[in-house]
Specification:
Layout (H helix, E strand, L loop, with lengths): L1 E3 L17 E7 L3 H14 L3 E7 L2 E13 L4 E4 L2 E4 L5 H14 L9 E7 L6 E4 L12 E7 L2 E7 L5 E6 L3 E6 L2 H4 E5 L9 E7 L4
Parallel strand pairs: 1-11
Antiparallel strand pairs: 2-12, 3-4, 4-7, 5-6, 7-14, 8-13, 9-12, 9-14, 10-11, 10-13
Cofactor: Fe(2+)
GO molecular function: catalytic activity, acting on DNA; demethylase activity; dioxygenase activity; hydrolase activity; metal ion binding; oxidoreductase activity, acting on paired donors, with incorporation or reduction of molecular oxygen
Protein name: Alpha-ketoglutarate-dependent dioxygenase AlkB
């Protein structure tokens, strides 16, 4: 069963998951003109590079491109590859401040790192996975900001296989917290109908 969650916008404190996790949708937190400006700056100034991973013992290079930033040169290992964080840029620091201010009222969180993903078009996506690396702790809080063309974002429960889907819009913020990473997978779905790029910023806290 798949349920469209987009109709819930902008109920930021509603939980978009039915059980075993928390996903809050804060709606569009960056107006179109501001989102356009950040998108252009990030496209131009980020040292994008194709991500690498080890899957089923094979070394692959992904179609999407990534960059990793943080308070310190944190080592972050995912899919068998270790990256070192770059220093914050002015644009990323400004986006982080907005995100933290939005969370301050109900669920104050300070983030010390951010993983950026660039999807050039709808043929590039992210397969089912959880952000459950040890460096993020047992119940990580992950704030995701989207800039660029809307893309379908989906959740699938690890045990029941129940799904939830939503469209992530230009300038939108969602936050995953609680047991979400322990019980749910998430993915950026591919689509041949999408020709434009999208940038996702996922703010995290490295705890170890």
């Amino acid at each position: 069963m798949t349920t469209d969650l987009f109709s819930l916008l902008p109920q930021q404190e509603n939980n978009l998951l039915p059980y075993d996790g928390i996903v809050n949708d804060y709606g569009i937190v960056f107006p179109a003109e501001t989102a356009d400006r950040y998108f252009a700056v990030l496209m131009r100034e980020t040292p994008w590079r194709h991500d690498e991973a080890v899957l089923y013992g094979k070394h692959i290079t992904t179609a999407r491109q990534t960059a990793w930033y943080g308070d310190e040169p944190f080592a972050y290992t995912y899919s068998g590859i270790t990256r070192r964080a770059l220093p914050w840029t002015a644009a990323l620091a400004a986006v982080k401040q907005v995100v933290e201010s939005r969370l301050a009222r109900y669920n104050p969180t300070l983030f010390n790192s951010c993983l950026l993903n660039l999807y050039s078009d709808g043929l590039e996506g992210m397969s089912w996975h959880s952000d459950d690396e040890p460096e993020l702790g047992r119940q990580p809080v992950i704030a995701s900001v989207s800039f660029g063309v809307p893309r379908k974002f989906a959740f699938k429960h690890k045990r029941t296989k129940e799904k939830r889907e939503m469209m992530l819009q230009h300038g939108q913020l969602i936050v995953m917290r609680g047991d979400t990473q322990n019980h749910w997978l998430h993915a950026v779905m591919k689509s041949t109908r999408i020709s434009g790029p999208r940038i996702s910023l996922t703010f995290r806290t490295i705890v170890g």
